[in-house]
Amino acid sequence: MSNRFKLICIVIVLSIASLMWVILNDIRQTYLELGAIQHELSALSQQFEQYQKVVQKVNDIDSKFTQELTDAKAENLHRYNNVINHVARLQLNSSKTATATLDDANACELTGEARQNYYLLRNDIITKDNVILGLQHYIREVCLAK
């Protein structure tokens, strides 16, 4: 074999070796980047699971207090209908003087509009109480639980 052929073979072998070294270095770098990406993905996955738990807590709280609100409003409507249909009476607490007669005791009753306004106000109070209780529960169970 001639020296020229040997030199060409050595150059080809060195070129292939350097190309292999570059390829292997790229593969190693890719694996390092993949490891970093997997670590980030794992952290994001944990954050997502925590977020899902918080969302589930919020949904549970919302369901609970929505059901309680619906039940309370239905009870209020039931009471209102009973009063309107003369099944029950809206009892008023009033103080009578010693000079009051028995006829005066029977006359103490709300007008139809006042009765309706009373139940509308009760409905508003029920709604606001339920919202406040729900928010307090949310603060305790979600905001302060972290």
Task: Give an overview of the whole structure.
The protein has 146 residues and is mainly α. It has one domain. It is 82% helix and 0% strand. Helix 1 packs antiparallel against helix 3. The chain is rod-shaped. The model has no long low-confidence stretch (mean pLDDT 88).
Beta-strand percentage range: under 5%
**Strands, total number:** 0
Global Rg: 40 Å
- On the 0 to 100 scale, the average pLDDT is 88
Query: What is the count of helical runs?
Result: 3
Helix content: over 70%
Distance between the termini: 78 Å
Jot down its keywords.
146 residues; mainly alpha; 0% strand; I-spanin; membrane; Lysis protein
Outline:
It contains three helices and no strands. It is mainly alpha-helical.
List strands and helices in order, with pairings.
Blueprint: H1 3-84, H2 102-106, H3 112-143
Helix pairs in contact: 1-3
